[in-house]
């Protein structure tokens, strides 16, 4: 009804998120409706996050798959340099991590603080995700801020 009345599908609200970013946090039917109404799949919010990053953070595979099928950029990153893979490791969503890796996400790409996805998974206790990165050949001894490795993040 609102969309039929020309509601602005890309307007940020006070928290700086777009309607599509908010919907990507768990409302697939709304995501579909907004995309069908012309919402920009690559529009970033004030934090630099795309709708895909919101779907990754919340672990919604259906929304993730929909956004990727519509051309969402997996390489997009937040202002802090967090990639979709970093955000997903922090949140601990194994199925989304697997999907990103299967689609070619770089398992060793660090964020602005030089933390790799493996370091982030180790820090947040994602044992299954850590094992997945080890199976994929992630750089175990890569150094982030202050020379910290994944092992240092794990302890």
UniProtKB/TrEMBL annotation:
Which keywords does UniProt give here?
A: ANK repeat, Repeat
Q: Which SMART domains match?
A: ANK
Q: Which Gene3D superfamilies does the UniProt entry name for this protein?
A: Ankyrin repeat-containing domain
Residues in ANK repeats: 47-79, 80-112, 113-145
InterPro entries xrefs: Ankyrin_rpt, Ankyrin_rpt-contain_sf
PANTHER family from the entry?
ANKYRIN REPEAT AND PROTEIN KINASE DOMAIN-CONTAINING PROTEIN (PTHR24198), ANKYRIN REPEAT-CONTAINING PROTEIN-RELATED (PTHR24198:SF165)
Its protein name is Ankyrin repeat protein
